[in-house]
Amino acid sequence: MLLDIGVGIMMALFFSKIFALSFTIPVGYFMIIAGIVFSLLMDTDALINLIIQRGTETSYKHRDLFHLPLLYIPSGMVILYFYQPELSLLFGLCSLCHFIHDSIGLGWGVKWLYPFSDDQYSFFYQYNAHRVGLRPSEQKTTCGKWGMYVWKSADIDRLEEKYGDKAWFQHIYLSWHPYSLVEAAVFILSLVLLYATMH
After folding, report:
1. Radius of gyration over alpha carbons of the chain, in Å?
2. How many other C-beta atoms are found inside a 10 Å radius of the C-beta of residue 63?
3. DSSP per position, 55-66
4. Is residue 31 within 8 Å of 121, Cβ to Cβ?
């Protein structure tokens, strides 16, 4: 989450610079808030899942509603384009960065090709696979150990039950490890850049 917030802030600063938007207090705050909201918006499906499931143990299912890049990004961009084209581009880039972030390391990836395929894709490193040592036949690897993982939608429930981390929130967000350090570093960098821009 800190990574998404940090990316949202940096994308807002980047777009303000590119489109020469006056970074006065109202405009600057609006762009920053828009960048953060756009970077986190697709995770509202996590809130819906938490309310329905009343817990975090099935949190991996939260990516079934809005984590569909081929539908989500174009739909949001078209809607926002008629309001403000700059916001449309900001939405597209923040959303794309979020989907890339969700495809590297955590969870079972994103349905990048939905509605053409129901498979989920993750890249480079897969938290569950390396943490518990999934057998190669269960990894569905298509490009080697650090390549691309293709997870069949029909297998996700079984794999999560067998290899999932029930204490994922604690292990990922409340522990120090390389992933949390990257998240914290990006967030702190975004605050430094924001401070430098506003002063």
Report:
1. 18
2. 23
3. SSTTGGGGGGTS
4. no
Of all helices (H) and strands (E), which one includes residue 151? strand 148-151
Residue 133 to residues 106, 139, 163, 174, Cα–Cα distance (Å): 15, 9, 9, 22
**In this structure, are residues 151 and 122 in contact, taking their beta carbons and an 8 Å threshold?**
yes
Q: If the chain, 199 residues long, is cut into consecutive pieces of 10 residues, what is the mean pLDDT of each piece?
A: 91 84 67 93 78 56 77 96 90 94 79 90 64 51 61 76 69 72 90 86
Closest to 94 in 3D by CA, of 76, 119, 71, 70: 76
pTM of the model: 0.80
Q: Where are the domains of the chain?
A: 1-103+167-199, 108-166
